[in-house]
Design a protein that fits this description.
about 260 residues, 4-stranded mixed β-sheet, 10 strands, about 15% strand, binds 4-(N,N-dimethylamino)cinnamoyl-COA, Enoyl-CoA hydratase, lyase, enoyl-CoA hydratase activity, ClpP/crotonase-like_dom_sf, EC 4.2.1.17
Length: about 260
């Protein structure tokens, strides 16, 4: 099915998902968000895909939610739109998603990048939560994820001034995994994705789930969850293959079973 704002290419078990609404710096309107999350959910269910990369254009990953779409909305209209649902669905994606960010990642765009599991940033990337300048606040996890990732004081400086930070500052604060030349950003994210796609898929998904839980639960609960997931992996064919391949001194062939 062809989508209006989202274009996907699949290569060697990795899906590259491009947001293409460049005329408005990839502003995330409802239609676009529904397409994006629908596409990620579809790829999540596709056995031929093991890892995904989400990217935008050279000038913007995404400059936030579509301000035009929100400008005249009433509380009732905002509530009826139920935008949270689509962001909640994004959290249900089990396979790793890497954001390749060039240019602006502002407001909902920064929240989208943070909703991914890792961020590779081009050296020209700019991250920010400028909602305060519009008289609102982040609505898709900005106050929560940013605080967890970079700490409350630094997060508050960004959230309360609305001032964007550079890719290098984002790296120093732990918001992104690495900073690379802008023109190689997508390729670097794809290389990371290919490396992950070679690992045992069920282990990869369980590691993602456990690491995400680490941010939500106390240490004891997290350790128990990790232990149970660890035991469960002993039921997979990939676990037998991985250990056998090591002992045979050859590369494992993981089938996701
Ligand atoms: N929405 C709509 N259009 C946008 C836009 C946006 N966020 N950002 C840029 N555009 C449009 C501009 O209006 C302009 O359109 P034309 O005038 O050409 O028709 C075109 O993109 C190019 O932008 P500029 O001419 O402004 O380009 P510059 O290089 O001069 O400036 C900029 C780039 C990124 C600094 C500037 O465009 C800018 O400040 N944009 C707005 C950034 C922003 O405030 N973002 C936060 C939006 S609020 C929720 C979930 C999420 C959210 C809310 C609720 N729920 C789950 C309920 C999120 C809220 C937000 O993100």
């Amino acid at each position: 099915m062809s989508l209006r704002y989202i274009h996907t290419e699949i290569n060697e078990s990795v899906a590259l998902v491009r947001i293409e609404r460049h005329e408005v710096l990839n502003a995330l309107n409802l239609h676009l968000m529904n397409e994006l999350v629908g596409e990620l959910a579809r790829l999540d269910a596709d056995d031929s895909v093991r890892c995904m990369v989400v990217t935008g254009g050279p000038k913007a990953f995404a400059a936030g939610a579509d301000i035009l779409e929100m400008a005249d909305a009433t509380v009732v209209e905002m509530k009826q739109r139920n935008q949270f649902q689509v962001w909640d669905r994004l959290r249900q994606v089990r396979k790793p998603v890497i954001a390749a960010v060039n240019g602006f990642a502002l407001g909902g765009g920064c929240e989208l990048a943070m909703a991914c599991d890792m961020i590779v940033a081009g050296e020209d990337a700019k991250f920010g939560q400028p909602e305060v300048k519009l008289g609102v606040m982040p609505g898709a996890g900005g106050t929560q994820r940013l605080t967890r990732l970079i700490g409350k004081n630094r997060a508050l400086e960004m959230l309360l001034t609305g001032r964007p930070i550079s890719a290098d500052d984002a790296l120093n604060m732990g918001l992104v995994n690495r900073v690379v030349p802008a023109e190689t950003c997508v390729q670097e994210a794809l290389s990371l994705a290919y490396e992950i796609a070679k690992q045992a898929p069920i282990a990869v998904q369980m590691i993602k789930e456990a690491a995400n839980k680490a941010l939500d639960v106390d240490l004891q609960t997290g350790m128990e969850l990790e232990r149970n997931a660890f035991y469960l992996l002993f039921a997979t064919e990939d676990r037998s293959e991985g250990m056998k391949a090591f002992l045979d001194k050859r590369k494992p062939v993981f089938r996701g079973r």
